[in-house]
């Protein structure tokens, strides 16, 4: 009997591992479905960074489908270690900028340069290792909280995971759940609120510690105390890094080194918060509207 038990038990372990891997792969393929559209050039080189790099969009034109151009002649630069924020109406192309930098898709015209290297000339693996995305909607795996945070860096220890969770201000929430870091989350586990999921994403990104960050702010309304807290955490995480903030609330962008105002795939205004208020154009109008709503 024991002879039978050991192999069966072993099979059980393998089954669980395969099941987990499949759940994750499933999610990854959904996330990366666009991946098939881009590949490494035969002579692709790794991106080697010793410090946060500059990022430049150079006359970028892009369409998901040929018949429907999305970005028109978009040019801007994020100097090394600085923050550029993008604002504009829904559908104006803001999130597309982040997707192109991560190279989910290739641009049709123009270039995207990281420290002067066209992203098309770099290995995807090295490019993506250098970029951390805090997305609008974080996908959680059907696994423990610890797994979901530790996913940011292979081999992260429990102590490192907890440290990242503390910095993202989610540690206390986790330790108050019945199984703490062992609590299952995701569709089949504990459901987290939008703010809690974003904090898990921030903790993941903290562990990954990439030199380039893309914050795609959640459109779903967080209550204002939560919003301010998350904002403070994102600002702390982004210190000294090269950051692209895709913002839905103008309060987020006030301190950015440059703000780009997009409309229908074009940059229609740019400058600092004060410059844009003085220009009294679209940004100033959006600002007055949001102040009024607040
Ligand atoms: P929001 O503020 O609502 O997040 P956004 O400014 O970030 O909007 P994008 O997500 O960049 O806008 O989308 C720009 C346009 O591209 C939209 O019209 C959208 O419908 C379209 N689009 C986005 N993703 C795809 C896709 N995978 N295939 C085809 N069209 C897409």
Automatic annotation (TrEMBL):
Q: Where is the ABC transporter domain?
A: 55-289
Instruction: Give the residues annotated as coiled coil.
Output: none
Q: Which residues cross the membrane?
A: 1-15
User: Where is the protein localized?
Assistant: Cell membrane
Q: What is this protein called?
A: ABC transporter ATP-binding protein/permease
Classification lineage? Bacteria, Pseudomonadati, Pseudomonadota, Betaproteobacteria, Burkholderiales
């Amino acid at each position: 009997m024991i002879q039978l038990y050991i192999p069966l038990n072993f099979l059980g372990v393998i089954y669980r591992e395969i099941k987990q891997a499949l759940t994750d792969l499933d999610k990854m393929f959904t996330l990366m479905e666009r991946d098939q559209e881009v590949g490494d050039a035969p002579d692709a080189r790794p991106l080697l960074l010793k410090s946060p790099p500059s990022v430049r969009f150079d006359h970028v034109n892009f369409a998901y489908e040929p018949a429907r151009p999305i970005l028109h002649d978009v040019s801007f630069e994020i100097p090394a270690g600085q923050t550029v924020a993008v604002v504009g109406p829904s559908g104006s192309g803001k999130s597309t900028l982040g997707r192109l930098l991560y190279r989910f898709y290739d641009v049709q015209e123009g270039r995207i340069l990281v420290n002067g290297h066209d992203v098309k000339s770099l290995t995807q693996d090295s490019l993506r290792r250098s970029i951390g995305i805090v997305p609008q909607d974080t996908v959680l795996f059907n696994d423990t909280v610890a797994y979901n945070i530790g996913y940011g860096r292979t081999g992260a220890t429990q102590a490192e995971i907890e440290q990242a969770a503390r910095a993202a201000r989610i540690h206390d929430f986790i330790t108050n759940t019945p199984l703490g870091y062992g609590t299952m989350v995701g569709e089949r586990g504990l459901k987290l609120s939008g703010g809690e999921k974003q904090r898990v994403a921030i903790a993941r990104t903290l562990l990954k510690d990439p030199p380039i960050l893309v914050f795609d702010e959640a459109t779903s309304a967080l209550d204002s105390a939560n919003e301010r807290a998350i904002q403070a955490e994102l600002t702390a995480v982004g210190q000294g890094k090269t950051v692209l903030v895709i913002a839905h609330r103008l309060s987020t962008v006030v301190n950015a080194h440059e703000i780009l105002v997009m409309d229908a795939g074009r940059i229609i205004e740019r400058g600092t918060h004060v410059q844009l208020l003085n220009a009294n154009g679209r940004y100033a109008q959006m600002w007055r509207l949001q102040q009024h709503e607040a």
